[in-house]
Structures are given as C-alpha cells and as structure tokens.
Amino acid sequence: MPSITRTVFSLIVINKAGGLIYQREFQPGLRKLSTNDYLVLAGTFHGVHAITRSITPKIPIAQPAPSPATSSPSATAPTASGYSYPNPGVPVTGLDYLETDKFRLTCFQTLTGTKFLLFTDPLTGNVENIVQKIYELYADYVMKNPFYQLEMPVRIRLVHILVSGDDSVSYTKTTHFSRTIERTQQGGSRIQDKQK
Q1: With a threshold of 0.90, does the pTM exceed it?
Q2: DSSP string covering 88-115, please?
Q3: How would you write 22-81 as a 3-class SS string?
Q4: Structural domain boundaries, residue 90
Q5: What is the CATH number of the domain that holds 124?
Q6: Where is the composition biased (Low complexity) (predicted)?
Q7: Which of 65, 114, 151, 183 shows its CA 20 to 30 Å from the CA of 101?
Q8: How many structural domains comprise the chain?
C-alpha cells in the first residue's frame, strides 16, 4: 500500500488584538493573497472566534422540585436558578476547527490570546501535534528573543527557517553581517558569522 503524504497549506499567527503577526504558505501552487487580504482574514477570524465563544449555549439549571407539603398552588413549575455550559469542566474556547472537503482550519489559542491558524489537508493526521510543535518554536525563538516586541509582527528569520523545516538553509541578514546556517548530518548546526 503506497504511503500518502498529507499537506500543510499555510500558517497564520494572530495576536490577542486580532492583528496578523506571522504568515507563511507552504505550498507553491496556492492562490496568492495580498498582505491586505491576510490582514482582513486575521481580523475577521478574530471576530468570528470571539462571537463563537460568546454564543456557546448555556443550559438552565433547575432548582430541585419542592416537596408536596411545602409547595404552594402558585408554584407549579420548577424555576431556573442559573445557567451552566453543557460541559462545565471544559472552558469555552470559541471556534476550534473548521473543516471543508478541500481544507481543514485548526485554531490553537494560547492563554495569552495568541491564535495559531493552521490550514491543512482534511485527511492530515496529528494536526494538534503539529500546532503544538509550532507553538513550542514560537515560545522558544520568538518570546525568548530579547529584541522581539510583544504583539508586533514576527520578523525573526530563524523562525521562518525552523517552521519551513529545511535541512540546509543559507540566508543573509539585511544588517552588516551575513549568517550562514548549515545543518550537519549528525543533527547539530553550525553558525558562521562573516563581516560584509
């Protein structure tokens, strides 16, 4: 039986205010969207996510039925003393995933409100594990970077390289140094800085 490779199409990271802070396409054949389209998509998804979180239905909690000796003739039906979510042990999250016959959109929201949107083939397995790994890369290489400003677009080239998963990558920084990262066969990496 031949192995089938499932596809990751795109990754979008949205800050807690609904602004686009990172976007990456992984498939070259996708229809290209403009930067403005991605900004609109991020803001729209942020709004839809907030709406779906707020419209999660609540079920009325009925008071226990009064005993026949203490009941009055005017109290014929139990009254609602409050409302509860269908599964009170699970926090309300909003839109977690959206699946069509062409793609699956998975949303992972951090405790700080940052959302990771991963567009994949509907049959791709372990999507939650992929998103979790991307979040770990974000935490390690973006949030621990002393030069990164919170809620601003991610302009860290190393994150772009790590997310793409290239085995050997060469790039030049726009500053006075050019940096070459070469992955060795042993799994380590060697970083060389060269003065321009």
Answers
A1: no
A2: TTS------EEE-SS-EEEEEE-TTS-E
A3: EEEECCCCCCCCCHHHHHHHHHHHHHHHHHHHHCCCCEEEECCCCCCCCCCCCCCCCCEE
A4: 8-58+80-149
A5: 3.30.450.70
A6: 68-81
A7: 114
A8: 1
